[in-house]
């Protein structure tokens, strides 16, 4: 078992006691940091940054230099898998991710195949290995992927959407084709996450960013069923240590109990559900990660501290809470508010 | 009491038996109808359409000519109230609503005053009266307003937002100012809705479009408390007939029981919560309106009918259900799918 100086994050995910509440922030390496913007500029494009193991390693470590965060997360994009499937990921300035070849025709869907992550996604595995070396046992490294439903949203819509009508129309009109996309994508995600674990990721997280846009019945059929297959397929131990897994369906609070039964060690919560109520619902089944509204970080440091304490109070005594935001950090966040947040979470005495 | 040929909508809102399930669709007068696009073009702009009682009446009636809908809804915008407060509503092409003078400074907030709806919003009252005359007792007319929180989002952000960080930062940093905005806006909304009732609206609905972007604690403090004040201030009877009220917090499923206790007759549901589960939670407190995913209307007519039946089955036997979408109808909806939907809802035998 390799050295790990700070295992509070891994222990909290497994609902084991920790001396304080571990904290990390979704998108903690990102545009709110001037040093990130500088590296991003040097890389030339967001995608070039993702695809360079050295630069991805550099930005992954930037927030850890500033703040006493308890985990690092691989710098990458959730859409690497469909990109490796040949859909042609690109970023139009100010418009978010797009695919050059979205799935439009039945034959395109039938031709989908899961990539070999050690070949087509070699650059991700190289970044994972390089970040692990650079972290040198200080804090654990989180690997991640988008969920099959979330990937399918982009693959069918061709980019972001505010109504998901193309992918939903496909799901309702041709569920057979939708399930084929989800089946192949699930195989690809399992292989991708296990390859990240093999390369050195010490925990993994599945981002189901758009699961919350579905009805309950459609969520169970088109997202949750595939999340459960991923949980069942994940490597559970590596290097003598358990590799915890986290699932996060943004907007999934209404289905929390079903999500807690999907087979992951921990469930991410957005900020709409009171975390104390969430804990009462999931009981001892899973740990919880969350759930401060990221907009709070755009308020005053005093408000940040007060709202962070509200989340900690709502969760209650140890164990089983990883503090995080309920969504990615805003690019407009003043870095000093992040410092105030991390300090307040670490200073909080859960059992007082 | 004036004549009303079809009172199924009003009766269902009051949880009284009806021979079939009434149905109307949020944004039923809109861009998916070619005749709407034609009138809109003739008006010159969306705002000119809203502000012309004759044209607003014309488009309000268009969907009723095509489909056997059980209610008409005033054609207007949710932002008429802050416009009448002097913020200067305008629509930038393809960008949604904006305000020329969003609330930026403390003195601007302190200067806010509730408009007299019979003066500054006279054009709305004229439209209500003209539509009532044109409907001639066929189906009831719904009046509406945005909720105080939703109006405040636009008033502070100056337009749509994908993170609401300005209005939330204000709420977290200066709750006193936020409550002042919400207090004045609540007075304005109550007066506005009561003026619509006086002018002829036979039911009223409050659209809390952005309440679901808040944490639970913030929702209760900044949205629900003001919704309850609106419910308490509404005219309850007019022309010898009860005037039912509906509240709709998009994304509010997690807080359904609290919303059901706010004092409205009915609660609108988006499509993320199973309506059978919602009914079990609210019991006999309120009627429910909803909750088909509007994206279903972009699928095949067969899928529309199957998913509509799923909602009707989930709700179960009479009474207390008004069928609707879980959000406004998409501009990309084929009108023939709406025809299939309305027919399927009316043909469904709840008590079979």
Q: In short, what is this structure?
A:
The structure is a homodimer of 352-residue chains. Helices cover 47% and strands 13% of the residues of chain A.
The 3D shape of chain A can be described as: globular
SSE run of chain A: HHHHEHEEHHEHHHEHEEEHEHEHEH
Secondary-structure-derived class of chain A: alpha/beta
Low-confidence stretches of chain A: none
Q: Biggest sheet of chain A, strands in spatial order?
A: 1-4-5-8-9-10-11
Key terms for this structure?
13% strand; 352 residues; seven-stranded parallel beta sheet; 11 strands; alpha/beta; 47% helix; homodimer
Tell me what you see in this structure.
- 2 copies of one chain form a homodimer.
- Chain A has 352 residues and is α/β, with parallel strands linked by helices.
- The first copy, chain A, has 15 helices and 11 strands.
- The first copy, chain A, has helices at 8-13, 34-43, 46-51, 53-66, 80-87, 106-110, 122-135, 148-157, 165-173, 175-199, 216-233, 256-260, 275-282, 301-315, 335-347, and strands at 72-73, 89-92, 96-99, 141-146, 203-208, 237-238, 241-242, 245-249, 266-268, 287-292, 321-325.
- Chain A has a 7-stranded parallel beta sheet.
- In chain A, strand 9, helix 13 and strand 10 form a beta-alpha-beta unit.
- In chain A, helix 2 runs antiparallel to helix 4 (53-66), helix 10 (175-199) packs parallel to helix 11 (216-233) and helix 13 (275-282) runs parallel beside helix 14 (301-315).
- The mean pLDDT of chain A is 97.
- At the A-B interface, helix 9, helix 11 and helix 14 of A face helix 9, helix 11 and helix 14 of B.
């Amino acid at each position: 078992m390799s050295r790990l100086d700070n295992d509070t994050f891994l222990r909290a995910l497994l609902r084991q006691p920790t001396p304080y509440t571990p904290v990390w922030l979704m998108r903690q390496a990102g545009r709110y940091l001037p040093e990130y913007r500088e590296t991003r500029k040097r890389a030339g494009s967001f995608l070039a940054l993702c695809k360079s193991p050295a630069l991805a390693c550099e930005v992954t470590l930037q927030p850890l230099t500033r703040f006493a965060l308890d985990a690092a997360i691989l710098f990458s994009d959730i859409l690497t898998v469909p990109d490796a499937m040949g859909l042609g990921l690109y970023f139009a300035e100010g418009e978010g991710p797009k695919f050059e070849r979205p799935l439009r025709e039945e034959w395109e869907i039938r031709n989908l195949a899961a990539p070999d992550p050690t070949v087509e996604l070699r650059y991700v595995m190289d970044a994972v290995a390089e970040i692990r070396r650079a972290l040198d046992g200080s804090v654990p490294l989180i690997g991640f992927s988008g969920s099959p439903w979330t990937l399918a949203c982009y693959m069918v819509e061709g980019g972001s959407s505010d109504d998901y009508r193309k992918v939903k129309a496909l799901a309702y009109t041709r569920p057979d084709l939708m399930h084929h996309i989800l089946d192949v994508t699930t195989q690809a995600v399992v292989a991708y996450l296990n390859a990240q674990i093999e390369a050195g990721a010490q925990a993994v997280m599945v981002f189901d960013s758009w699961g919350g846009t579905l009805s309950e019945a459609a969520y169970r059929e088109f997202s949750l069923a595939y999340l459960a297959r991923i949980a069942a397929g994940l490597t559970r131990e590596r290097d003598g240590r358990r590799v915890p897994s986290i699932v996060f369906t943004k907007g999934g609070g209404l289905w929390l109990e079903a999500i807690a039964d999907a087979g992951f060690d921990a469930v991410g919560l957005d900020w709409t559900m009171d975390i104390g109520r969430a804990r009462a619902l999931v009981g001892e089944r899973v740990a919880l990660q969350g759930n401060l509204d990221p907009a709070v970080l755009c308020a005053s440091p005093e408000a940040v501290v007060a709202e962070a304490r509200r989340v900690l109070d709502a969760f209650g005594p140890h164990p089983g809470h990883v503090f995080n935001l309920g969504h990615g950090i805003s690019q407009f966040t003043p870095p000093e508010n992040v410092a105030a947040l991390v300090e307040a979470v670490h200073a909080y005495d859960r059992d007082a």
